[in-house]
Design goal:
The chain is α+β, with helices and mostly antiparallel strands. Helix 1 packs antiparallel against helix 2. Strands 2-3-1-4-5-6-7 form a seven-stranded antiparallel sheet, sandwiched between helices. A hairpin with a 3-residue loop joins strand 5 and strand 6. It is built from six helices and seven strands.
Length: 154
């Protein structure tokens, strides 16, 4: 499992660190026995082994205990199962979908085809992308995350 936190209010930092410690994540995979003492924004906190469903539990914990946190996290695919990606940007929303081992979102071709088949005549691509397409593809949330990610690198 991998977690990147790109922004968080100072008041919520202890809750993020507590969640990182609770889920046994290490900074840049250093496999330390001691949890991190301070939060490094834009850095990878990860664990080589995580119980299936841990990513959903961690996302829920972060959203409730550190509501200002801008983060993306994913759990790698396991055998024939897709990975699990959760991205959250406060005041924008969350996006959750399957992913590969690099956290790249997977969009079901079947779901995409079903949505496109249900469009009424005259619906533009722009209209679809700002409605159902945005929900399926996570455009708004992922765009907001990319802006926070870029700001974190500066």
């Amino acid at each position: 499992m991998q977690l990147y936190v790109y922004a968080v209010d100072d008041a919520d930092r202890p809750a993020v660190l507590a969640a990182i410690d609770e889920f046994g994540l290490d900074l840049e995979w250093d496999q330390s026995d001691v949890g991190p003492q301070h939060l490094e924004l834009g850095r990878c906190y990860g664990a080589h082994e995580a119980t299936l469903g841990s990513s959903e539990e961690l996302a829920t914990l972060l959203q409730s205990s550190a509501p200002s946190a801008v983060f993306t996290l994913w759990q790698d695919p396991h055998m024939l199962s897709d990975g699990h990606l959760v991205t959250h940007v406060p005041n924008v929303g969350s996006y959750e979908t399957g992913c590969d081992a690099e956290g790249t979102p997977h969009v079901s071709a079947v779901d995409l085809a079903a949505q496109l088949a249900q469009l009424t005549d005259g619906t533009t691509v722009e209209e679809w992308l700002t409605g159902d397409g945005d929900s399926l593809l996570g455009i708004t949330v992922l765009s907001a995350l990319r802006r926070r990610e870029a700001a974190c690198r500066q």
